[in-house]
């Protein structure tokens, strides 16, 4: 199978590329290399047999010049929920990259009759019901209070695909939700397969960690190097919770999607995450880091951040039922993998998240 991967030199794109190359697929990818650290993946991927092209998905002539493929995996995005409002990226840049770039890819798929797989996000789900979620603290982590009424589509097992996606969901979430809608419309209109894989927090060795994205890698690398860390918002206790998934666990699913018959639209939108079994608070992550590396002080700062929510865990039950899929890398293995990488790369934070 000829696979084209966008953002191939990012953490997710490069991880998926390595797995697909190992499975015998022909992999081509492109990257604009604006993310610090991404250049480090170019030569290793080339040595494994991938063709890596410098191109920007916002540039339609560059997209038109790409070689034909059977499937496109879209792993390129500005992945921060703060994008467009943090003063580092303009709102126009965010929309151009995350939405208009998707349109260029869909035009490519239309031309080449290629399938399209969008790696979407848990951030397409509505902020208001999540921000107001009744929660209790258990073992230094917030969990839904199931003795009270919970929003539709949410349980202790996580959010399912029926959970609300109405605004506000952040500018970032809106670009991904709009990309989902356009992908499905293009696929229906022009007759090519489309799959929307809504992923939880993706993590693993080699991730380019920052406080607003790649939080597991950022926290572990910062703890090891004794860099300043803060628990922001929610009383400054670090009890906010996210799930965790290694992107290589997506590879068996992707191969099934390459060969899948046409599915109903509702079955093309599926959550993929580590689920409740992988859910962890920042405080619990700190406890793991302290056991692994020794003590380090974390500042308690209750200052809230825009769009922050106390608990978000995706329920992957539909993925198991529809695709017989389940994550195979336990969260402790993901953390240990990141820790070993951090020990072997003492300047990783400076490379991937320069101050």
Properties at a glance:
7-stranded parallel sheet; alpha/beta; 3-stranded mixed sheet
Structure description:
The protein is α/β, with parallel strands linked by helices and 355 residues long. Helices cover 36% and strands 17% of the residues. It has twelve helices and 16 strands. The chain has helices at 11-22, 42-48, 60-64, 91-112, 127-131, 170-190, 215-224, 251-258, 282-293, 317-323, 331-344, 348-352, and strands at 2-6, 26-31, 51-54, 71-74, 115-121, 135-138, 141-144, 154-155, 158-159, 194-199, 230-232, 241-242, 269-272, 280-281, 299-301, 311-312. It has a seven-stranded parallel sheet with strand order 3-2-1-4-5-10-13, sandwiched between helices. Strands 14-12-16 form a three-stranded mixed sheet. Strands 6-7 form a two-stranded antiparallel sheet. Helix 7 packs parallel to helix 9 and helix 7 packs across helix 11 (331-344). The longest helix has 22 residues, at 91-112. It starts with a strand and ends with a helix. The mean pLDDT is 95.
């Amino acid at each position: 199978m000829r696979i084209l991967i966008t953002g191939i030199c990012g953490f997710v794109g490069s991880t998926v590329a390595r797995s697909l190359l190992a499975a015998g697929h022909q992999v081509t990818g492109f990257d604009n290399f604006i993310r610090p650290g991404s250049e480090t993946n170019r030569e290793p991927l080339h040595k494994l047999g991938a063709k890596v092209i410098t191109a920007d998905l916002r540039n339609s002539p560059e997209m038109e010049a790409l070689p034909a493929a059977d499937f496109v995996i879209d792993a390129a995005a500005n992945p921060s929920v703060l994008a467009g409002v943090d003063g580092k990226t303009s709102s126009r840049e965010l929309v151009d990259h995350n939405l208009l770039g998707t349109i260029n890819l869909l035009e490519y798929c239309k031309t080449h009759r290629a399938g399209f797989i969008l790696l979407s996000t848990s951030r397409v789900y509505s902020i208001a019901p999540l921000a107001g979620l009744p929660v209790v603290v258990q073992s230094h982590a917030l969990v839904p209070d199931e003795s009270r009424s919970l929003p539709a589509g949410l349980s202790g097992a996580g959010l399912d695909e029926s959970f609300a996606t109405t605004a506000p969901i952040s500018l970032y979430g809106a670009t991904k939700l709009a990309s989902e809608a356009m992908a499905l419309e293009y696929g229906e209109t022009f007759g090519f397969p489309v799959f929307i894989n809504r992923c939880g927090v993706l993590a693993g060795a080699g991730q380019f960690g920052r406080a607003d994205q790649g939080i597991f890698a950022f926290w572990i690398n910062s703890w090891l190097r004794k860099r300043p860390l803060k628990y922001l918002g929610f009383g400054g206790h670090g009890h906010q919770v996210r799930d965790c998934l290694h992107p290589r666990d997506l590879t068996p699913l992707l191969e099934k999607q390459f060969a899948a018959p046409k599915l109903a639209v509702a079955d093309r939108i599926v959550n993929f995450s580590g689920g409740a079994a992988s859910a962890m608070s920042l405080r619990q992550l700190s406890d793991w880091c302290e056991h692994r590396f020794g003590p380090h002080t974390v500042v308690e700062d209750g200052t809230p951040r825009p769009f922050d929510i106390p608990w978000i865990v995706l329920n992957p039950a539909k993925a198991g039922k529809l695709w017989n899929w389940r994550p195979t890398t336990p969260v402790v293995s993901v953390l240990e993998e990141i820790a070993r990488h951090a020990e072997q790369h003492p300047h990783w934070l400076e490379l991937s998240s320069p101050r």
